[in-house]
TrEMBL record:
Belongs to the helicase family. UvrD subfamily. It holds the Pfam family UvrD_C. It comes from Haloprofundus marisrubri. Residues 754-787 are annotated as: Disordered. GO terms for biological process: recombinational repair. This is DNA 3'-5' helicase. It catalyses: ATP + H2O = ADP + phosphate + H(+); Couples ATP hydrolysis with the unwinding of duplex DNA by translocating in the 3'-5' direction. Its EC number is 5.6.2.4. Transmembrane segments: none annotated.
Amino acid sequence: MTSPNNQQQELIEHTDGLYLVDAGAGTGKTFTITRRYANIVGQDGVEPDDVLLLTFTNNAAGEMRDRIVSHCEYGMRTLRDAPIQTFHSLCHDILEKHGVDAPTHLGIEDRITDSTRLITDELVEEALFKEYYDQFVDTHPEYTDYFRIISNPSELLGVIRQLTAKGVFPDEDGWYRNGEQSLDGDFEAFKSIFDSYNEPRNDGRKQSKLRQKLRQFGKNKCYLPNAPPKSEIRGSRTKQIPTEVAQRVFDTDRSGLKSFIHDLYYEYLEFALQRNYLNFGFLQLFAFVLLCEDHRLRDEIAFEYVMIDEFQDSSEIQFKLALLLSSTKNFCVVGDWKQSIYSFQYAAVENIIEFKTRLESFIDELNDEYERVSFDPSPIQTIELEENYRSTQEILEFSENGLLVSATSRDDVDTVTVRDQIVPLSSNSTYEQSRIEAFHAEDEHEAILAQIQEIVNNDQYAVEDDGSLRPPTYEDIAVLTRTRDFGRELQRATNEYRLPVAYEGGIELFHTNQAKLLLAWLRILEGDTDRGWAAVLEQAGYLLDEIAHILETESYPTEMGSFKKSLDSLETVGAIARRIFSKYGYTGEIADVLLQTIQSVHNETMLTRGDLIRFIERGIENGSIHEVNVNADTDSVTVQTIHAAKGLEYPIVIIANMNSGRFPPRGGNSSPISYQDPVGLRQRKQFAEIDRLAHIYDDWQTDVLNHCLPREYDEERRLLYVAITRAESHVLFSAGENPNTFLEELPVEVESVEAEPTEVGMDEREEAPLEVSVPDSADPDRQSPHSIMRDDVFDEITEGMGTAFGDMIHDFAEAYAKGEEVSVPVNEETPDKANVVSLIDSLNGELITEENAYLPIDVNGSQVTISGIIDLVHVLPDRIEIIDYKTDRGRHAESEYRKQLSVYYHVLESVYPDREITAAIYYTATGEIAEIDPLTKGELRSTLQNTTTQIA
Ligand SMILES: Nc1ncnc2c1ncn2[C@@H]1O[C@H](COP(=O)(O)OP(=O)(O)OP(=O)(O)O)[C@@H](O)[C@H]1O
């Protein structure tokens, strides 16, 4: 049994007071915090409900719960309902119970109701935002000049999300509490950055970095004529930029910009509530507002103990929420600043690095006119955890270099300060046999594969296992990359050599063949014939000149022409997609995920074929990613991104794609409007008409401000640190022809190799099956309607007939409805077929058989999709009838079937919003039709809540 070391024990035992643990990788932070939890709830008078334990992913929350159970007297049943959860699910719970009127605190009349959904898919939200934005543009001509600089509205959604994560919200009259201050920025904070960047170097002999950088001022830019000349900005005969430039670039009238963002943000909140949805950020926003405003409620909810794991991943609003939820000073945060790699999800590394200052200023701010946080921000106890239970000493020492190397030739790190912030770790491993190596090759993929072959079974790369050394296998190795694309390329190369590799990086859904064909057919239907047909014909195997001929003469293959006609007759984009996938035999997970995505965006918006084309095109452009795992054999190499590997460990790590422009990736924020600390809200572009010449100009002040704020490469270094510290025994780096600056600076010799992997014969191992499955964490949970039905009522229903009989009747009904030739034997004992025939003969509308139905539904803050197959849909001009065949000999299961049909009802209601929908059971034995009264979505949700033990 593992026992805690002294430092860990100290944290476990000291349960009261303010604690900050900022400790390195693999030092047992999660291990310790879970035992501390067990210790707290073991005290007299403390119940699990008194202790809030927060983290950032549902998986992490689940794992903590599992770890706690084994150390405490409470069982899983109690802990399942205990507040061991993510910020999002906590906010969801608060709003569900108390949040109905939360929007009124911002002056918004719309309510948060039972049916308010949580939109988790960014693409879906972007589509909704686009719809909202078009409407906003129409109703706000006063902002035309801003609209002119926006080419992609999603960038504005990005600004809104960023402000939300910072706790800046609009209200009816302006900005909630002190929000406007953040938008204006903090001149003093900016000035101190400016001054330090503007210090002359080499005892005054060399110009400041800032002055040197501003040589670029005006290069490739088009400023308004009132912009000062470069010489005025840089100053002449001086080593520094004139200090008044700081004020001059900071001060600008931003009232128009602020009011544009205010109205856009405020009306978007209203739009979202009217359309009955929230995003993750808005969940936190409304929970925060509620806790700020409703003092009685805050006291009622607040916890005696609050602990946060992975604190380096918290955003500003999350830190403040945790403070509002803490009724005592028993507040403990645990994390590692060196592993803060989620700024794109608004994590603020300053929360942990400047814990004391932030704690003080946030408490001050929250208490400005009412005491919301009742404790003093001192004293703060800090505990160092210095023993590492994962890597060898050599790797631990080497990993520190990751935080000290430059990211580009022009980047220079303040190594003295960073070194000061690193607490050296000591390794607990028994063996010290690390190999730290690097190689580069013309073909990096092949070189990596050859290296993997070199490592497997090689004693020189032996790994520790249960206290002894053994030669490595494939599964000991992980290949980690900064960006996803490389992993997929490597996966392709491995297929060629039949190496066992499991790529766990997600797929770009809209780059799949399924999506491309769907897009092609939609283009054909929408009259964009050449592009559409070219892709369809190419997929069908036509050669380029054949395609050119067909396009020119418009003599499309007959079968394809009639397929197009059949698509034309379909009403909904979902039906079109399904028909296309079924024609091409696409039945796997990718088709399912695509259908689900289309269905959910269609449910939320009035998606036309043209909209769907643009939706897919945007998805292709953005490289929208959906997490899917390739299930390979158990003994296979893992390939994943560094982000995905966080928290994991592997005996051997290959950090790949250490190439220029790939790590750090090229590009940056080029949004025309952006928010950045400490300069606040700024616009990079502005529209003006000068001498009747309309043009989009660059903003010279924002340009200088951006030069003053050095590009943040710190997070890229932290990513490198995270990657290295995943390794237990050996670390290797690989690059192609153009190694990055990191690799040049790391203290490891880079060997040039020309290795070629050898193909593994089929007889040696089977090719890893490329089955794709959607994991719970990133995508909605899937449920079938049967999961919400009680099983016991079915025990007797097929009595005498059996499920095979049921299947046979269903197959028969499908074939008959499709007009296929079937025989209808007359059988008095089982008149089911004859009844089906007379039912179908009596229907005179369009018949759709075996239709897939997906109902996304929000349960406890998670998206769950209930999917099933509707036996028959009868489409009439004014009405849609859902018919589900049942071969039961009695009607005692009807209440359970009601749930199933209710799911179908809601799916079709969103597909045919203008028509009446009915749902009925057709009892094939008697020919009776039993129409059901559908449950509301709220009722379905409660059924799900009761049956789903824990939604991941
Ligand atoms: N006192 C201990 N004795 C033995 N093993 C320990 C001890 N403390 C932690 N470990 C083990 O070390 C490993 C790392 O622990 P844990 O995941 O809690 O670390 P962490 O600090 O949260 O890591 P990271 O920051 O990389 O996520 C786990 O396998 C854990 O069981």
